[in-house]
């Protein structure tokens, strides 16, 4: 009689495929997972606690560090929350700059998601291609904000810097280039048998599960829920643009992969229209008081970040610091379904599933 | 310095008056707001230009000594700080005016300095007028929004606002009038455009707008024309949008010499969807100064939803399950329900499983330490009805315990762990309540207001 | 020369000569490994729109690998406390030794070969199968779960893919009637076996990638899943030995493919026979290595269960069918 026992395997906190300091304690029988327990918090910096002693403008750099792959949307959500509370109308040009920055950020973020996902599956080159194209976006955002990753670009009432001369033209030129690249991505990876073998029908969850587990963004849309806050609860000037909400029905890793790639194309559409409509001149910052004080009360706003719905709750007692600030961090919510998905899968699928959820640990841990 | 005190008093009063006026105007319909506008346009538009200069001219030579002005300014600052209502009103005014029509705001800011020509009373009045105008405009806009949403039939609302505005402007001096006019102008243009949009979008029945237009025309010829034109064209074709914008532009330009207004109108005319942005501004303005309590009865686009939720809950769970319910104007008009501690779970369950409500998605859950009590805030969303609701519950701070929502929404699992970790709220019935971020060996709950960090900062 | 030595009676001088020749071959192999790694990095670099090594040793990075190896030599030798020490030390040796042993039978040219044994092909396959012991030992001795999983995967994978590997060359053995690699090369005078046995070539090539543990079959290492698989606990020169074994196998396998499918040292056309056989061999050999590198930078990794399925359900039957077909054709037409 052979004695067998389950093995406890510690995946992370330092592991090539956890995309950061994320630990997953899995019980495995051979290579089949019988139980998975995520352990998070390694990157918890207490943003919300720190924010209680910071003025609103001072909080913005902290948001850069949550989802550091799409810092623009994080910048936006806090500004948007404060603006909503104070009833500030953002100048048109600033709105355009914001939207363009956010959409560029979304493309950059999805590119990283794409590249690292394929890397997780063992192919090295797509990662580099994705980073090459992301680099162009990063350069554009750098021109705009002066930073490559932690932009700290938006302010309550507008943006900090106006677009440098020729910036919009640069974005315009980037759009057709990126469209070509996407085609190349599909040629390289999307039809690859080995790739399809690894993602098709892997990590499937139903629409009901996705909703019940509070998933959002591509993770939700991959199950066929047509919901995009940009479209359905338009904020900023998203109602001026014509774009589609990408959905897939299967709810597996492949669907999530395709949703992300196609969302890049939709973002390009938005960018294209934004470039056309970009106002030649105008203010970039609304007239806001020097010291921003949100009125007494509370507000919760949510917007569509690349990873899902990022929300910001502010409870203000009328002072210049928030009484309580809370971010709804999409990765944190999206990760909850992971233990459920992993049971019965093997280690290789663990990587495929985790990669398809596309988490950023800075965001998971707040 | 009794004058100073008087001034405060007056300001407060003025603000209150303005609020009252705004309340009255809230009943006004969308068309209404453009009525007052052209009326004043006629009068002050000619004066607008020279009046722009006038304050500047009068400020130094004509007025009482400059220090007086400075005093006034100081007084004003003090007053603003002291009188909350006034501050709120002002903020609102700033919020609206700055965004909508920069020129009037500048004028308004000059007011304290310029106004030493007249006495404090006048100043107060002027302010009151300005505030009133701002509010009126905001209200009118809101109305416009509602109309656009098709929630309020156009016929049912009288238009008492124009007189109010006229009266207010009578009270004030030319400056105030000018301001009012400028604001009204901008608003009128916006409204006209929005109307056109609406029509084109087919959201509001054409008749409604037509009726509204009739009413309007009696009082405001210019705006009415613009609107009628817009309406007609909208009926004819979708291209009306652009044209209506054009009309609005022309209207504004013709009526006012105000450079800024023109620039604004032009900018607006450029983008076809600028009206939507305006509507948003109205929404924002709505949220401008509203603290939840005092505006519970203000009509908002989401008011019917709140009524519905309240009704359904009361019918099924009894009338005493909710502690409070209101529209949170600050938070994009989200209907907010405050459950009692012992009914929280029941209400949550009901919100999810009731067919009329069907809030199947938990967007956010967190706790807050309000020192007097703890609060759990849950933001729910229904994919079926595409509606949001915020559910709150107040719990005892010393013994923060509440039922877990995890059995209802699986997505509440980690957020509840987070609330437990950072605030020490215990969720009963949670399958695995643990310190998710800080680890089990952490001492204290950092987001509690009495938390003392282990290593105090130097 | 080698031929004479092989047939002369044993003696001290004889041994000395063989030892020296062996050392020379080792140096050649090490030279290949050095520049094979560099080539891999350069080729992958250019495929991935970057430059690869370009600092150490001029702009081509010619001394990069040398520097890397030096670094590995100088690194502290770490043996985990809980590891099985003797096995831990033994494993890299067990893994490397067979990789070098298999080179003995490969005819690089008609003159340069170390052991012209009758069952050269069988010898190669049998000895190369030993390396898996090194990997399993290493994985086991490390006392690390990832290493254990990697070792298990290595064992499963290499045993599974050895079978299609052998089966696919059976067709060639049927055609040539010999297991001697020299005979196999000479049989390709007119037409290479890649044309006569294309199915066998494809099966053999795929199986050989699996044997080499290279992408897309690099599951025993599987950086993204098992961190580094069976050699996760190894560092310094012990780790270098595993890497060395891997690249020597790359060398050996490329050489074997050149020999049995691409006509070894034979020229492409007869009128090109003025070019020496060694050049022909190295050209074909380099082409094979290039394809390996190319695949590595293109394909994602298989999943472990699909890998097994693919091996047993696709490659194995195809190889069997190939044998059957070859035998049928041979009996009917020749």
Query: What is the N-to-C succession of helices and strands of chain B?
Result: HHHHHHHHHHHHHHEEHEEEEHE
- Strand runs of chain B, count: 7
Roughly how much helix do the residues of chain B carry, as a percent range? 55-70%
| Strand portion of chain B | 5-15%
Distance between the termini of chain A: 49 Å
What is the chains' assembly state?
heterotrimer
Classify the beta-strand content of chain A into a percent band.
5-15%
Distance between the termini of chain B: 46 Å
What is the spatial order of strands in the main beta sheet of chain B? 1-2-5-4-3
- What overall geometry of chain B do the principal axes of the alpha carbons give? globular
Largest beta-sheet details of chain A: 3 strands, antiparallel
Report the average pLDDT across residues of chain B: 59
Most extensive protein-chain contact, per-chain counts? A-B, 58 and 64 residues
Radius of gyration of chain A: 21 Å
Number of β-strand runs of chain A? 8
Question: What is the helix/strand order of chain A?
Answer: EEEHHHHHEEHHHHHHEEEHHHH
Shape of chain A: globular
**Uncertain parts of chain B:** 29-67, 77-120, 147-173, 198-297
Helix count, DSSP H or I runs of 4 or more residues of chain B: 16
Strand order of the largest sheet of chain A: 1-2-3
Structural class of chain B: alpha/beta
């Amino acid at each position: 009689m052979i004695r067998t026992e389950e093995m406890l395997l510690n995946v992370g906190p330092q592991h090539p495929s956890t995309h950061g300091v994320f630990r997953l304690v899995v019980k495995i029988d051979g290579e089949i997972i019988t139980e998975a327990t995520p352990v998070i918090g390694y990157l918890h910096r207490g943003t919300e606690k720190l924010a209680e002693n910071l003025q609103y403008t001072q909080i913005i750099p902290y948001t850069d560090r949550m989802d550091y792959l799409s810092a623009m949307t994080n910048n936006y959500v806090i500004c948007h929350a404060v603006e909503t509370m104070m009833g500030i109308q953002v100048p048109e040009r600033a709105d355009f700059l914001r939207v363009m920055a956010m959409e560029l950020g979304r493309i950059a973020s999805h590119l990283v998601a794409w590249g690292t996902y394929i890397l997780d599956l063992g192919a090295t080159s797509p990662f580099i291609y994705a980073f090459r194209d992301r680099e162009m976006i990063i350069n554009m955002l750098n021109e705009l904000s002066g930073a490559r990753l932690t932009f700290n670009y938006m302010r309550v009432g507008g943006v900090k810097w106006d677009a440098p001369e020729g910036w919009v033209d640069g974005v315009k030129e980037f759009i057709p280039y990126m469209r070509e690249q996407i085609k190349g991505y599909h040629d390289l990876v999307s039809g690859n048998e080995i790739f399809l073998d690894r993602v098709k029908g892997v990590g499937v969850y139903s629409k009901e599960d996705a909703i019940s587990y509070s998933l959002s963004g591509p993770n939700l849309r991959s199950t066929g829920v047509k919901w995009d806050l940009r479209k359905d609860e338009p904020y900023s000037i998203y109602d001026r643009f014509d774009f589609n909400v990408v959905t897939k029905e299967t709810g597996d890793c492949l669907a999530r992969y395709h949703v992300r790639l196609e969302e890049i194309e939709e973002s390009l559409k938005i960018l294209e229209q934004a470039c056309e409509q970009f106002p030649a001149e105008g203010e970039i910052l609304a007239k806001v008081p020097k010291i921003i004080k949100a009125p007494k009360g509370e507000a919760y706003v949510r917007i569509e970040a690349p990873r899902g719905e990022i929300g910001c709750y502010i409870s203000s007692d009328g002072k210049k610091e928030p009484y309580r600030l809370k971010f709804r961090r999409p990765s944190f919510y999206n990760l909850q379904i992971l233990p459920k998905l992993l049971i019965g899968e093997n280690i290789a699928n663990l990587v495929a599933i985790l990669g398809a959820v596309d988490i950023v640990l800075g965001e998971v841990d707040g | 310095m009794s004058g100073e005190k008087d001034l405060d008093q007056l300001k407060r009063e003025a603000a209150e008056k303005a609020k009252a006026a705004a309340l009255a105007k809230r009943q006004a319909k969308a068309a209404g707001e453009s009525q007052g506008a052209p009326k004043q346009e006629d009068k002050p538009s000619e004066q607008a230009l020279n009046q722009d200069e006038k304050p500047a001219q009068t400020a130094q030579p004509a007025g009482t000594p400059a220090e007086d002005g400075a005093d006034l300014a100081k007084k004003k600052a003090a007053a603003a700080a002291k009188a909350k209502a006034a501050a709120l009103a002002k903020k609102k005014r700033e919020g609206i005016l700055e965004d909508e029509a920069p020129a009037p705001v500048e004028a308004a800011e000059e007011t304290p300095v310029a106004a030493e020509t007249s006495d404090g009373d006048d100043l107060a009045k002027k302010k009151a007028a300005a505030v009133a105008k701002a509010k009126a405009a905001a209200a009118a806009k809101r109305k416009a929004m509602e109309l656009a949403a098709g929630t309020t039939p156009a016929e049912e609302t009288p238009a008492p606002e124009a007189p109010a505005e006229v009266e207010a402007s009578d009270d004030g001096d030319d400056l105030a009038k000018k301001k009012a006019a400028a604001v009204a102008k901008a608003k009128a243009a916006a409204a006209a455009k929005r109307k056109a949009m609406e029509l084109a979008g087919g959201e509001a029945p054409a008749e409604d707008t037509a009726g509204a237009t009739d009413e309007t025309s009696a009082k405001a010829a210019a705006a009415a024309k613009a609107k009628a034109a817009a309406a007609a064209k909208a009926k004819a074709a979708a291209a009306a949008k652009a044209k209506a914008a054009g009309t609005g532009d022309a209207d504004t330009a013709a009526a006012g010499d105000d450079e800024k207004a023109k620039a604004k109108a032009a900018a607006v005319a450029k983008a076809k969807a600028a009206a939507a942005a305006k509507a948003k501004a109205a929404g924002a303005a709505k949220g401008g100064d509203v603290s939840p309590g005092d505006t519970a009865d203000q009509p908002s686009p989401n008011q019917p939803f709140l009524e519905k939720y309240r009704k359904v809950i009361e019918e099924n769970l009894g009338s005493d399950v909710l502690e409070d319910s209101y529209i949170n104007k600050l938070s994009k008009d989200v209907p907010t329900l405050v459950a009692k501690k012992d009914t929280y779970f029941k209400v949550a369950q009901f919100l999810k499983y009731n067919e009329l409500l069907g809030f199947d998605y938990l967007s956010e859950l967190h706790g807050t330490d309000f020192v007097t009590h703890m609060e759990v805030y849950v933001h729910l969303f229904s994919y079926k009805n595409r509606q949001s609701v915020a559910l709150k519950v107040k719990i005892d701070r010393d013994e923060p315990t509440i039922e877990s929502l995890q059995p209802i929404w699986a997505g509440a699992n980690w957020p509840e762990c987070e609330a437990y970790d950072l605030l020490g709220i215990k969720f009963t019935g949670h399958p695995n309540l643990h310190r998710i971020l800080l680890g089990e060996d952490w001492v204290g709950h950092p987001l509690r207001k009495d938390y003392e960090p282990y290593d105090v900062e130097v | 020369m080698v031929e004479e030595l092989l047939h002369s009676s044993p003696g001290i001088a004889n041994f000395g000569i063989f030892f020296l020749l062996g050392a020379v071959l080792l140096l050649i192999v090490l030279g290949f490994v050095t520049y094979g790694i560099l080539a891999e990095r350069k080729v992958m670099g250019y495929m991935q729109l970057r430059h690869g090594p370009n600092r150490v040793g001029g702009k081509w990075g010619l001394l990069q690998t040398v520097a890397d190896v030096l670094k590995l030599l100088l690194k502290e030798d770490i043996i985990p406390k809980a590891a099985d020490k003797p096995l831990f030390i033994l494993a890299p040796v067990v893994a490397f030794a067979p990789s070098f042993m298999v080179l003995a039978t490969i005819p690089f040219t008609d003159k340069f070969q170390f052991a012209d044994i009758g069952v050269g092909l069988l010898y190669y396959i049998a000895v190369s199968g030993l390396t898996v012991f090194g990997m399993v030992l290493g994985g086991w001795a490390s006392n690390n779960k990832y290493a254990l999983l990697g070792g298990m995967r290595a064992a499963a994978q290499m045993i599974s893919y050895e079978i299609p590997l052998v089966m696919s060359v059976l067709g060639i053995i049927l055609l040539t009637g010999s297991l001697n690699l020299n005979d196999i090369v000479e049989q390709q005078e007119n037409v290479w076996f890649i044309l006569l046995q294309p199915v066998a070539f494809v099966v053999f090539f795929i199986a050989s990638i699996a044997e080499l543990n290279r992408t897309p079959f690099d599951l025993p290492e599987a950086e993204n899943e098992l961190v580094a698989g069976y050699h996760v606990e190894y560092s310094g020169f012990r780790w270098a030995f595993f890497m060395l074994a891997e690249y020597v196998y790359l060398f050996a396998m490329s050489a074997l493919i050149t020999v049995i499918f691409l006509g070894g040292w034979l020229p492409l056309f007869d009128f090109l026979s003025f070019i020496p056989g060694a050049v022909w061999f190295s050209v074909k050999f380099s082409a094979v290595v290039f394809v390996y590198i190319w695949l590595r930078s293109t394909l994602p990794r298989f999943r472990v269960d699909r890998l097994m399925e693919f091996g047993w359900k696709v490659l194995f039957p195809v190889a069997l069918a190939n044998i059957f077909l070859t035998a049928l054709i041979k009996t009917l037409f020749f």
